[in-house]
Here is the input.
Amino acid sequence: MNNRQLFLSHLAQTTDFPLLIEIEKAEGIYMFGPNGEKYMDLISGIGVSNIGHRHPKVLEAIHKQLDKYLHLMVYGEYVQQPQSLLAQALVKTLPESLDNVYLVNSGSEAIEGALKLAKRYNNRREIISCIDAYHGSSHGALSVGGNEIFKRAYRPLLPGVRNIQYGDKEQLNHISTATSAIILETIQGEAGIRVADKQYFKALRERCDQTGTLLILDEVQAGFGRTGKFWAFEHFGIIPDIVVCAKGMGGGMPIGAFIASKEIMEVFKDNPLLGHITTFGGHPVSAAASLATIEVILEEKLIDTVEEKAELFKSLLKHPKIKEIRNKGLLMAVAFDSFDTLKPIIDRCIEDGVITDWFLYCDNAMRIAPPLTISREEIHTACERILKALNEA
Ligand SMILES: Cc1ncc(COP(=O)(O)O)c(C=O)c1O
Here is the structure.
């Protein structure tokens, strides 16, 4: 059997129409197939390769760590330098109050930890989340997701969860002294890039302060420079109580984190002790890769280029079929009138070596979230091919 047959026979399938693109190697913004195919990755493996594939500094950090040790012990017992240095680097990017990092393996796991932490901290049970939110696929993360189609088959989920409309100030009144936490994506990703305004975030913070509700911001897609700030919440002048990250954090390696104040995080130590446990969380190789990723983002000043690159995309992607472009930095949605219009365009782009996608809850918009390292010339090439696909599809 060839690789494609093995994939279809022995790997669990999640749709009847997987992309089935085979990749042998990846470098920078490019992925290479076994028969000479060359693809521009305009979606960064869904928000992961913010610094491109196989960044040399990440590879170097991984190699160095491989020569020292792999897994040693479950999370939170041994002093492992890659974890400590990563935590230090992370808190340096954050406001002073967010000074304590719990390392996990993925976005969903980080969401689980954040929800548990909030419940333990204020001993309340209600959680508010947003319609059309995506926070992951595990039971807890699914419970606070905002799309019934994905939830229905898995009920009963977590009790005490209610959804409000992201960006609607009026609905913040649902947050009460019974609410343990409100969780929201700073920028809604799978909803097709929805961005609330500064007034909304200010009102959200105020309501949380009035009611003693913890504000959890999910920056799994929006963090790590993607929107033109290291953290997307920096655009809105507020500070969350807990911030959640993953995806772009590892530079291509699996890692996630939820980050809060030491005072909040302390509750995991007692009654019961070991309030959140993970075997592999903050794996030393992933932690070393993540530290290198932060250094690359900061040293290469990638964040400074995001806004200009996003504007270049927007100025080039002009076509009667394009109805709207929504974005915050290089987290972009190019909207068409329907999925039927968009799907052949995406397929045509892939044939021409450009990988885009649609969104989980928004199938009429093209996802564009390239590595932040993409050059201006590459943006021109990508947009030329997208426009060609628009004309031909
Ligand atoms: C905003 C957001 N939160 C959480 C997750 C879950 O992350 P993971 O797939 O690493 O579990 C995702 C994944 O797409 C996401 O986009």
Notes: The chain has 13 helices and 17 strands. Residues 98 and 261 are 5 Å apart (CA to CA). The pocket of pyridoxal-5'-phosphate is lined by residues 106-108, 111, 134-136, 185, 189, 218, 220-221, 246 (CB under 6 Å).
